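Q: Protein A?
A:
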Amino acid sequence: MSRRVSPIEAIRAEIDALFTGDRDLVEVLEDVARLGARLIIQTAMEAEVDAFLGRARYQRAGAAVDADGQVTARAGHRNGHCPTTVKTTAGPITVARPKLRGTTEKFASRLFGTHVTRTHALEALVIASFVRGMSVRDVEAALADALGPEAALSKSTVSAICTQIAGEFDVWRRRDLAGIQLDYLFLDASHFKMHDGHAAEPVLAAWGITTEGKPVFVGLDSANSESTDAWHGFLTDLADRGLVSPLLVISDGAKGLISAAEQVFPKALRQRCTIHKLRNVLAKISKDDQETVRAEFWDCFDTSSEDLMDIEPGQRLVEAVQQRITAFIGKWAGTYPAAMRAMEADRASLTVYLRFPAEHHKRIRHSNFIERTFGETRRRVKVIGRFPGETSCVSLIWAVLDRAARGWRGFTMTPRALRTLQDLRRALLEPPTPLYKTPVEIATTIEDAA
């Protein structure tokens, strides 16, 4: 008689079966995340039961002895399983909780407690290591370190996952971008440990809002720094693959990024992230005054107040907010001169967004959206500590951001907003050809002809 298939073996069979069909990889990964969580939790609970009883599944009590020949088995035996729901970031999953009979003391899981309801580091480990593009050895080592060798997956399964992840990312990073026309381009970087013995290194990211108001994940790549050369290479690659100039580039104040953006997309306007600037200012303010300064900083940009609410987006609105910034700097310059010098240095680039549709203002005045997604990436990979290499790092971040991108919210494009954007597009990207040349242009034409 064949023995009954254990819950662990059943889950492994389900995972292997996912890669035998022709389903879309994105759908497969979602299922792998859930099944992976089930596998880890199930393996952990079964291993705890083995330790509690002092013997493995199907092992006789008399056969469980230590090095001195002493029987290690405890009274009691397994008595099937009962379904239990566990909450994870991949959604609620059902595991088979082992039941015991005839024990002299009650079994309680040290990993999950008496009642399994929510996972902690384990489900993060599943999403970070099990699903996200690391090598076979890396995945097996991460799982074994956390839960013992029984938690390791079959090499064929891990290899299939890693190969498909790497292939999908390679296709994505080389795709043609000529069909994407952006109004807004957001640029940011986050640092991750990729190489042993080296400090954290940046991963550069770009996402945008199309002329239809749809969000799109545009580009991702690693770099050894946030220098002008690094950002210039990243943005040039996007342009070489067909990405045309956006109307507005939103970024933090990194000088290399700003310089590269101005070189690659010289016709686009640039908005300095207001949240990053606020952090710069508050870093030079005493704790006693930080809340007051924070509130007054945001008051400068409040266009819903009675004195500004009737002013249409454009130069008049920019000038009105600049007057508020002047008053804000004047109020605090005597107490915090360094903070107000930092504010003064970027004041012009803080109000560029006011030329764009009013309904977009609160979402285009900062680049915090993709920064929050980077934070989610860091949270999920925290259990790893350091990536085993650059390829694994970028593949992981791409997988997390690519999943997140499917839930990103677009922009509302009202008729008035579309008119404003079209006027800006004509002015910035499609300026009319002058009817008459200036004397300097005529002289240049004559010199070129000669």
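Q: Protein B?
A:
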Amino acid sequence: MKSIRQRILLRVLGLLLIGSLILSAVSYGDATHEIEELFDAQLGQSARVLQGLLRLPEAQIDHQQLAAVLNESAGRQPTLAHRYESKLAYQVRDADGRIIARSFNVPSIGEDNWLPGFATLGQGEDQWRRYVLEDSEQQMAIWVGERADVRGELVNKIVRSTLIPDLVGIPLMLLLVWLAIGSGLKPLERMARLIRQRDPDSLQPMLVSDLPAELEPMEAALNRMLDQVGQLLAREQRFIADAAHELRTPLAILQIHAENARAANDPAERDAALAHLLSATERATRLVSQMLTLARLTDEQQLQRQPIALQQTCRNELAQLLPLALKRHQDLQFDIDPALPETLNMEPGSLGMLLQNLLGNAIQHCPDNGIIKLHLQRENAQPSSLLLSIENSGEPVPGAKRERLLERFYTGSNHPGAGLGLSIVQRVVERHHGNIELNDSSLGGLRVDIHLPL
């Protein structure tokens, strides 16, 4: 593939050559025309000089002597002062058609070449340009001619003198253009060098100093692409972390149901445990599908919201997490305001994901034989908002730690966990234009308040 410098140079060279050819053709045409006009004027002037000499009265010039001199030049070639003299000719004839004066090199011409005015006769190297002047007073005609190659030689010299500087100047101009293009492409070469030298793992914006205006869109596009790649990697890393965190609870539930089925002696109890195990497996599969759907969305994209049965969804999530609570002899309580609507428009799976993380965290941080309470009511200050609260009877969380609980990977305790539960909750709440608050619980532990528009 050709470089930008070569592409520009070829185009500039083509334009220079075409322009030079056009200018040369125009110059050649103009020079030829002007030289023809000049030589024609000289022919006419020469004819009138001869006419003036022949018109002089005998008191001023001896006509016989002048005729003798002119006739003498017809018989032999005189000593020439200039080589062009042999290419100029003249002759004079009287009214009877007799030649009374002529030069030594007059070509043979017919009667048709004595017509007044300018004309061209002959072919090739013997081509002449002639002018005939008739003098009615003296009853004579003056024929003045010039070899055509005199004019062609002069035109060729003028054209050569014009083209030679161009032929010498064009290579020099190309060299200067080559250097100028190289100088102009230095910022692009510097940008390419910076890109080659960058660390493959670096997604920092690329900053090039003294960048021309034409390259600023390229720099902006590259930086925008780096930012998009960074966001994509961040979403992938967040998805991996979220998936690891979200699957902890379903896998723990699956383990409990599997242990119950293995420990059951009664076939009915074993079938019930296997049924719970199958239901938990289906729920884990659905959770993975929902997480994949959420991971594909950018922050600006939204899933189509659907009416979600508020009370039924809460009861199902409580039932799914009940084995974890019973294992630690914890009391799960559910309280819902009957004035709340039966359904709430939310993204599919988002309410279940929210409740699972909140209840899973509450169960994990609540001590054995503790109390976990889920409460839903319409807010008093804003009747169009839903207040969802989850609290436990665990240990209180100091204010300094409480502010960091929403940070990703921050656990705030020695309990096993990835520190992603509340950050996932916050993401779901923000996608539904709500907000989250962390407060002290009347039961002694932490209370999480979720405010969602109804």
